[in-house]
Amino acid sequence: MKLHSVKSLLSYIAKRFALMIIMIWVGLTLSFIISRLLPFNAADYLVSQLAAAGSQLSAQDLENMRRQLLSLYGLDKPLFVQYLDFLRNYFVGNMGPSFAYFPTPVRDIIINALPWSIVLLMSASIINWIIGNVIGVLAAISKKRNVVAVLENFALVTVPIPYAVLGLAFLIVYALVLKLPLTMYGRPVAVGVSLGYILSMFERALVPLLGLVIVGWTGSFLYMKNLAVRMMQEDFIVYKILQGAKDRHVTGMVFRNALIPQYTGLILGLTRVFAGSMLVEYLFNYPGIGLILRSAISSGDFNLMVGIVSISVIAVAIATFILDLTYPLLDPRIRYPGAG
Amino acid sequence: MNTHIVLSAINISADYILDSKRGLYLNAIDNVSIDFRSDEVIGIAGESGSGKSTLVKILYGAAFPPLIIRKGKVYLFTKDNSKIDITSITREELRKNIWWKHISYIPQNAMNVLNPVKKVKDQFIEVFKYHDERIDAKETITKIKELFMRLGLPIEALNAYPHQLSGGMRQRVVIALSLLFNPRIVIADEPTTAVDVVTQLGILNLLKDWQRNSKTTLIMVSHDMSVHAYMDDRIVVMYAGNVVEVGSKNDIFENPMHPYTKLLIASLIKKGEKKLKTGIAGEPPNLLNPPPGCRFHPRCPFAMDICRREAPPIVELSDGKVVRCWLYARK
Amino acid sequence: MQGNENSLKVESVSKYYGYGLLGLKKFKVLDKISLGIPLKPPTIFAIVGETGSGKTTLLRIILRMIKPDEGVVKYKGLDVFKLPRNAVSWYRKEVQPIFQDPYESFNPLRRVDSYIFDAAKRMAKVDKGSIEEYVDGILRYVGLSLDRVHGKYPHEFSGGELQRIAIARAIAARPTLILADEPVSMLDASLRVNVLNLFKKIRDDLGTSIIYVTHDLATAYYIADQIAVLYRGSLVELGSIDKVYENPRHPYTQLLLTSILEPDPKISEKIKPLKLSTIELKEFLAQGCKFAYRCPYASKKCFEKEPPNVTINGVIVKCHLYEKS
Ligand SMILES: Nc1ncnc2c1ncn2[C@@H]1O[C@H](COP(=O)(O)OP(=O)(O)OP(=O)(O)O)[C@@H](O)[C@H]1O
Ligand SMILES: Nc1ncnc2c1ncn2[C@@H]1O[C@H](COP(=O)(O)OP(=O)(O)OP(=O)(O)O)[C@@H](O)[C@H]1O
Ligand code: SF4
Ligand code: SF4
Ligand SMILES: [Mg+2]
Ligand SMILES: [Mg+2]
Questions:
Q1: Is the pLDDT reported for residue A310 higher than 50?
Q2: Measuring CA to CA, how many Å separate B185 from each of A203, B56, B180, B257, C106?
Q3: In CATH, which of 3.30.1360, 2.30.30, 3.30.300, 1.10.3720 is domain A106-299?
Q4: Nearest in space to A304 (alpha carbons), one of A291, A314, A316
Q5: Residue A54 pLDDT > 80, yes or no?
Q6: Is 50 exceeded by the pLDDT of residue C100?
Q7: Which of A56, A93, B150, B302 has its CA at a distance of 20 to 30 angstroms from the CA of residue B33?
Q8: Is the bond into C97 cis (omega within 30 degrees of 0)?
Q9: What are the residues whose beta carbons fall under 8 Å from the beta carbon of A125, sequence distance 6 or more?
Q10: Closest Cα to residue B16, out of B63, B82, B50?
Q11: Average of pLDDT values for A65-86?
């Protein structure tokens, strides 16, 4: 590589990097704004809980307490100052304390929950992606019309149904009809980075994972099948057939070319892991990020909320950055500037 | 001359099914018979939509839906002089024994038929694999390099991805691919559309040199009469799905028989001509509903009563000339 | 409103396009092009070049569809990119385009006759009472008639018919200059001549000048009076078509003229093989003469220094070979 092309490659990376930083900043700001748009805050929530519990405190005391809480949380300062504090703290990696679990740092809460979500959702995304794509290409090429039709109809029926319904249906069939054990965490293992602990997480994730996979592969299946059917009409595939390519060669080629758009789907899909999946975790009572986000919203815990949302904003920004850098490896038509 | 028939189309008629429920058929090929001989460049000429590509797809055995063959046979004569009917054998047999080894094909938009994510080199190696040519990697590369050298293509192109090559270069790569196994028949469907005149000449020379050296059959499809003037030994003229005339290049250009060929030749502009020429009045017919009788009659200045009623017969004249016109039929 | 000069002048026009993933690098699609097209007497001016040589880009600039990065286009002495507001519609009427693919220049959901009525009403200001007669006259002029065209949509016509309708629309505006971008390359040989003859007729009867863009030298010679040859964005030869044809001076023009095929069965004996280029972008970026990679006469200077424009016998040639030493 010549010197000038190295230079332009570096400037390309720098530009993409800057873009990523801007994306993160915009995302953080938006999540800050949205959190402050909630009609109540953590102080209101606590006070109203106390009042509801029938405590003996007078209205005056309650109001004083609300004030104190507000100043403790830093919510009494002008919004603009709050925003600057927020940015400054994030810059050094400090997400502040959780209000609901005061003074536990938001970071610790997230770090505890994140591995659970990663284990469940990342395996689900990857498994779904692989199953969906492989079956999709095979269905486009297969001559067994009725098998394909069955698969396709199953997918067409399940895709539009909300996961809440499907997940519930799965739970019912699984637990009530098949009478299988719902959770398998029989072996308590000390929290920590040990093989045993990770295995136990997988054990616990198994049922929700099954639930996610059984209905989750259909999306990428349908997309891939349509893509592959269109690709079969492409001139370069028809040409290969006329050259005498065997069916398996044609399959391989269709897969390789369809992979390019599907790759984006996979990477961006993986970033959803960081937001957790509220619904799945709720349905299966699984201690991931989604469950925490749910309680943060209902208790007005701004810091925790913003913390979780910003993690996924940062994940999406980083994923986009990675996509931009790796795309040329996958598609030779896209080049880094200065190269070739 | 010691030439023999290598491929023979007999009374082919073929339709595109547009809507089988409503009975909508487009009659793209109507009763076409042609013999192709060894060691010749035979051109298929005709305006856009006259059925040139459809005809060569049928010759290659690639009549896939919506195209269906209504009638007729295509016989391929192998080296040991056995006769294979291309229209009735299975796709697997075609794939294994005929395609690429015996007869190969350069499709109409050759610029865009290379796999965009594979290097040119790998696209050659793949073809070896398709046909179970088990030779080791080194030998394969040497073979490919030899082919490139013989055809005067730059070896560097082998390591390029298709999009890194110019359109003309891609077309030449596709031509090289088609010659890989030394087939006895090559079908080239408009191998030079969308390239400039200089590149066009290079591509045509490539094909012509190969044909002259290997004494094989080159079927040249083009709408451009200049290409036929440069390349062909014999020319087949098509009009609206019919073969209207077959003759040697000189006969077609200097002594055309069929009224359509006559008018077509008269409308051509040669280099350095300023004299006012006239085109053919009217337009080619709609093949969904072709005119009765001779398909050229609405535009033909010699049209007679019978032309409007009955399709003209195929008339064989001396020296292998064939004309499909009532003017030459002995009644 | 009219300036004093009766011509369209393109004065050292350059246009850059970016390339690369982000389009940060630039190459010159047009490199200091200067030419003049006379409006009186009416002239057919051919612009000839291979694909990608910048012909369409030049036409788009003349049509004010894209701005040049350098240089000016003057119509009757007025800079067309600095026209006063009321002159813009005047310029749109004066200069009419015809495009390569007739199906792309008509909206498939709009009746084709409405285009001609529009042009007649808005541009030629034909009054209501006589407009049908006017449109019918124009359609008859191109070999059709209002009866045959009335109420029909683009897909109901063949390519040849639709191209003639596109020409009818252009002349319905009573322009002074028609820009035709490869108007016959999509048509069959037997229909091509009819359209070309129509262009000759328009020049002779209506006194309209025509810029005829093509890659086909034979048809250029058939109808044009003057010719400009483009190679990779530079103008390599410019002059009267007879002179250029009989005595091509630029090595590229010579190559074009010897490699062009023609419908003559003796052609195969006349033509000799040649060298082919593969790297288009490299030639666009070349410092010196863009043709140097393929030129049989190229010397060291040709790769380093841009060749000068030399005028010989009324023909401008951009080549070091003809430099006065
Ligand atoms: N897939 C298809 N479905 C329906 N009709 C088709 C199809 N392909 C071609 N046709 C029609 O069949 C006729 C013959 O087409 P064909 O492509 O053989 O013409 P051609 O002579 O090769 O023309 P060109 O010079 O444009 O390549 C045309 O009327 C065309 O519209
Ligand atoms: N919008 C654009 N952005 C970048 N490059 C462009 C753009 N438009 C055209 N080009 C490039 O500019 C060059 C000249 O294009 P142009 O269309 O003017 O050529 P042309 O002579 O009309 O060719 P053709 O005969 O193919 O119509 C080509 O290399 C083309 O790829
Ligand atoms: S058969 Fe009749 S209409 Fe047809 S070409 Fe001959 S003379 Fe003309
Ligand atoms: S300037 Fe040099 S390279 Fe260019 S055309 Fe003239 S002689 Fe050839
Ligand atoms: Mg065709
Ligand atoms: Mg163009």
A1: yes
A2: 64, 12, 12, 28, 43
A3: 1.10.3720
A4: A291
A5: no
A6: yes
A7: B302
A8: no
A9: A266, A269, A270, A272, A273
A10: B63
A11: 83
Q: Which of C67, C84, C73, C92 minimizes the C-alpha distance to C7?
A: C73
CA of B324 to the centre of ligand 3 (A): 8
Q: Report, at the CATH architecture level, how domain C7-322 is classified.
A: 3-Layer(aba) Sandwich (3.40)
Whole-structure pTM over 0.90, yes or no? no
- Picking from C216, C271, C277, the nearest residue to B201 by CB comes out as C271
Shortest-distance atom of ligand 2 to CA C23 = 4
Q: What subunits touch chain A, counting only 3 or more CB pairs under 8 A?
A: B, C
Is C219 near ligand 2, meaning CB less than 6 Å away?
Answer: no
Dig out the tokens for C162 from the structure. 């639709």
Helix A247-271 crosses helix B120-130 at what angle (to 10 degrees)? Answer: 130
pLDDT digits (tens, 9 = 90+) for A116-173: 888 888 888 889 889 988 898 888 877 787 888 888 888 888 877 777 777 778 878 8
Give residue C181 CA to ligand 1 midpoint distance, Å.
25
Residue A339's pLDDT band, with cuts at 50, 70 and 90, is very low
**A336 touching C (Cβ < 8 Å):** yes
**What is the C-alpha separation between A116 and A113, in angstroms, rounded?**
6
Token representation of residue A112: 């505890």
Taking the Cβ of residue C25 and every Cβ of chain A, the question of whether any pair is shorter than 8 Å is answered with yes
Classify the phi-psi angles of C104: left when phi > 0, otherwise alpha if psi is within -120 to 50, otherwise beta: alpha
Among C203, C163, C211, C167, which Cα is nearest to C185's?
C163
DSSP designation for B297: G
Q: How confident is the model at residue C239 (pLDDT cuts 50, 70, 90)?
A: very high
Which neighbouring-strand residues pair with C48? C214, C229
Residue of C21, C24, C25 with shortest CB distance to A334: C21
**Which domains, from first to last, does chain B contain?**
5-102+183-269+276-328 (3.40.50.300)
**H-type alpha helices, C11-127:** 55-62, 85-94, 112-118
Residue A1 has pLDDT above 60, yes or no: no
A231 has pLDDT over 60: yes
What average pLDDT score do residues C58-70 get? 92
Angle, alpha carbons A60-A63-A65 (nearest 5°): 110
Nearest CA in chain A to B62: A242
Rounded to 10 deg, the angle between the A163-171 and A195-232 helix axes is: 130
Tokens of residue B264, six digits: 């077509």
Give the contacts of B57 (CB within 8 A, at least 6 positions apart).
Answer: B63, B67
Helix H or strand E segment including B145: helix B137-151
Q: Which of A82-91, A323-332, B306-315, C199-208 has the lowest mean pLDDT?
A: A323-332
Q: What value of ipTM does the predicted structure carry?
A: 0.86
- Residue in the structure block whose two tokens are 């696209």: B123
**Is the Cβ of B163 closer than 8 Å to some Cβ of chain C?**
no
pLDDT tens string B274-316: 888 888 887 788 888 889 999 999 999 999 999 999 999 999 9
